[in-house]
Design goal:
heterodimer, A: Cytochrome C Oxidase, Chain A, 17 helices, 0% strand, B: 230 residues, mainly alpha, 73% helix
Chain lengths: 547, 230
């Protein structure tokens, strides 16, 4: 009996008190805590989006004034980017999976990891405070001198929230790099690492080198506001364009902080559901690093119309085109992996395929925007909004939910209803395209972003977009419902319900506190899928045969 | 004594792995610190390039004597810190504490001098903000009449220098205060006999941090105090 109890003890049931969660140093529990926290912010950002999408159904003011509208899109941007997308995959799935994929018992600095959750939550509360006290209307980019001189004082609170939560990112990134370098299991060489780990390695480098720059920039804005000195204020000789340089020096690489982990997730899912070794493993791994490095030299493409010299613009344009190479390498290699594979269209795979298509559209329109002449035409229009959402929602959010479904049995030990999962994935895909594809058109036709009153001829496209947002919201809610349902009533998952090859699938679901019952020794790479090892989708293999 | 073994955290396999991890972690932390101060240095460089005369004039109001004195103090504190690390490697508990206390004293001297300098700037209305006042009465440096110095907002540009002076030295001082906190923690650990020849990583890591803080000052001193002497 006692032997039996020891067998089923895992990280979730080892202790049940609230304190055992709040003071845990277990990376798996911290990942789960992060999941709950960022989903709250995802919900808040989503509510803001739904509200202003409803307003945008009519060309005239419907139920909110311009100021409210400005605050809502700012709230949407800040919560989604800084409090949802940036921590989404790294702090949740990365936190949970990275040590397991490495065969380690925990991250290198478990207490630092817990501290990062507290710091993040504190930063998030400051951001929430800014919203509760009436909101900020600067847009998520906080451009000076508007943010530093004219906007309301909630800017300070929101800026501090971002400043503080940035440290949480740095802690996570630093922890990941050290863990990947120093804590790999015996036999786990660099080129046996899952691509998920490579993607997180590249992401962590950007986090560690980029985030401090936004920290100091935001600090300078706060100093300027609090002491009324003129660091970015032209009246005192300051240079508002310098703010843009410093801001984008972080915030462009931050886009790769948001997309690279998603690419890592997609690599895992594509390989598993094609039953094939990932095509071009080495170059896919290296392309993550290439994106991380190139990403630091393209920030000027946000500033083609900000009085930047033409020659600087040309260089930034060329460098931005270069980022397309490693990105395309990934897309082509994923497609090559699919080729000839025994493809199974399960829920995670639907999200991964959605990612490939939507990211490709998002990435290719990125090339339009990197072209200076086209950029001037579509600058600050809905075209940008659509491009960004194709990469961030069509890319990262799809990958996040794909990954969440893929590892849901591992994290919770429960299976979600597969058919509902597939239907939801399709609803989300349709809703997404209906929301954002019309925005490419309306933007190309000249509709500027950040306006809630617009010429009547754009109404049809805006109504389509709002309708899509409703479908999208429905999809997300449906997902929330069945995932919660599976937590309580879902059937138990076996240790490897997808018959996947990674190290994380060799340990029970959910894993024990120390991750493995016996310290693993790695003898082959993470994608050891073979012909005989075909995938079977019957309840018998999926359910927990060990009782 | 299995003293070293007891310091092995559960998720590491060996002391060596643990030490290498904390060392790599510290270097990464310092890398992000370089980027943090780097942002400030870039902004400083851009404005200095834009307003060279204003920066030279403003810099002339800083006391080179105090700055140089503080530079010497900080370099000495790096030496005592290095000696503390050496003492830790040799497992000499008494000397660890002595050298750390010496480092802390030097750090306090530095911060004290900084306080004197800040007060002086306050009395001369050189603290940026609405109360800032630039009275051109500085004779150590003759201000040439150029398009830049004749600009109606020349005082604003002088103030910009002081914005950077306070943010940069303030951030540096904040790092020193954090360092002092770390050293108090080290003393407590040392008094409890936690350090040994096998386990002294906290002393070593604090040492790395302290040398970094020192190096930042080595850059700040010429950029802020010696601009007008070039």
């Amino acid at each position: 009996m006692s032997e039996n109890a020891a067998k089923t003890e895992n990280y979730l049931n080892v202790k049940h008190t609230v304190a055992s969660w709040l003071f845990t140093v277990d990376h798996k529990r911290i990942g789960v805590m992060y999941l709950a926290t960022i989903l709250l912010f995802f919900f808040l950002g989503g509510v803001a989006a739904v509200l202003f999408r409803i307003e945008l159904m009519t060309p005239t003011e419907m139920f909110m004034a311009s100021e409210t509208y400005n605050r809502l899109f700012t709230m949407h941007g800040i919560t989604m980017i800084f409090f949802f997308l940036i921590p989404s995959i790294p702090a949740v799935l990365g936190n949970f999976l990275l040590p397991i994929m490495l065969g380690a018992r925990d991250l290198a600095f478990p207490r630092l990891n817990l501290a990062s959750w507290y710091v993040f939550t504190f930063g998030g509360l400051l951001g929430l405070g800014a919203i509760i006290f009436g909101g900020v209307d600067t847009g998520w980019t906080f451009y000076t001198p508007y943010s530093s001189t004219y906007a309301n004082s909630n800017v300070i609170l929101a800026a501090l929230g971002i400043f503080v939560s940035g440290f949480a990112s740095i802690m996570t990134g630093l922890n990941f790099i050290v863990t990947i370098h120093k804590m790999r299991a015996p036999g786990l060489t660099w080129f046996r690492l899952p691509l998920f780990v490579w993607a997180h390695y590249a992401t962590s480098i950007i986090i560690v080198l980029g985030t401090p720059v936004i920290a100091i920039t935001i600090l300078l804005v706060a100093v300027e506001r609090i002491f009324s000195v003129g660091i970015f204020d032209p009246a005192l000789g300051g240079d508002p364009v310098l703010f843009q340089h410093l801001f984008w020096f972080y915030s462009h690489p931050a886009v790769y902080i948001m997309i690279l982990p998603g690419m890592g997730v997609v690599s895992e899912i594509i390989a598993c559901f094609s039953r094939k070794r990932i095509f071009g493993y080495h170059i896919v791994a290296m392309s993550s690093l290439a994106i991380a490095i190139l990403g630091f030299f393209v920030w000027g493409h946000h500033m083609f119309v900000s009085s930047q010299s033409m020659y600087a613009g040309m260089i930034f344009s060329i460098l931005s085109f270069l980022v397309a190479i490693p990105s395309a390498i990934k897309v082509f290699n994923w497609v090559a992996t699919l080729y000839g594979g025994s493809i199974k269209l399960d829920t995670p795979m639907l999200y991964a395929l959605g990612f490939i298509g939507l990211f490709t559209i998002g990435g290719l329109t990125g090339l339009f925007l990197a072209t200076m002449a086209v950029n001037v035409h579509v600058h600050d229009t809905y075209f940008i909004v659509a491009h960004f959402h194709y990469v961030m929602v069509g890319g990262m959010v799809m990958a996040f939910f794909g990954g969440l479904h893929f590892w849901w049995p591992k994290i919770t030990g429960k299976l979600f209803p597969e058919m509902l999962g597939r239907i939801t994935a399709i609803i989300i895909f349709i809703g997404f395209n209906l929301t954002f594809f019309p925005q490419f058109i309306v933007g190309y036709l000249g509709m500027p972003r950040r306006y809630h009153v617009y010429p009547e001829e754009f109404q049809l496209l805006h109504v389509m977009s709002t309708g899509g947002a409703a479908v999208l919201a429905l999809g997300y809610m449906l997902m929330g419902v069945y995932l919660l349902y599976s937590l309580i009533l879902g059937p138990k998952a076996s240790s490897n319900p997808w018959k996947a090859a990674g190290l994380e699938w060799t340990t029970p679901s959910p894993p024990p506190t120390e991750n493995f019952l016996e310290p693993p020794v790695v003898k082959h790479e993470a994608y050891a899928y073979t012909e005989e090892d075909t995938y079977r989708d019957d309840a018998e293999t999926k359910g927990d045969t060990h009782g | 004594m299995a003293d070293g073994q007891s310091h092995l955290a559960h998720h590491f396999d060996s002391m060596e792995q643990q030490r290498e991890s904390s060392s790599l972690g510290m270097w990464l932390f310092l890398a992000q610190e370089v980027m943090f101060f780097g942002g400030l240095f870039v902004a400083y460089a851009i404005y200095r390039f834009k307003y060279p005369e204003a920066f030279a004039v403003a810099s002339g109001y800083l006391s080179v004597g105090w700055g140089a004195f503080n530079t010497v103090v900080l370099i000495c504190s790096s030496l005592t810190m290095a000696l503390a690390v050496r003492a830790a490697q040799l497992g000499d508990k008494k000397k660890i504490i002595q050298y750390i206390v010496a480092t802390m004293l030097l750090a306090c001297v530095f911060l004290g001098v900084k306080g004197v300098e800040y007060t002086e700037k306050y009395h001369h209305d050189l603290v940026p903000g609405p109360a800032f006042q630039y009275v051109p009465d500085f004779d150590a440096y003759t201000v040439p009449v150029t398009a830049e110095t004749a600009h109606p907002n020349f005082a604003g540009h002088v103030q910009l220098f002081y914005s950077f002076y306070f943010v940069m030295t303030g951030m540096h001082a904040l790092h020193m205060v954090i360092g002092l906190g770390l050293m108090i923690w080290l003393i407590v650990k040392a008094l409890r006999g936690r350090f040994s020849r096998e386990y002294y990583a906290p002393v070593e890591m604090t040492g790395l941090y302290w040398h970094f803080v020192d190096i930042v000052w080595i850059f700040l001193f010429p950029l802020l105090y010696l601009v007008w002497r070039h």
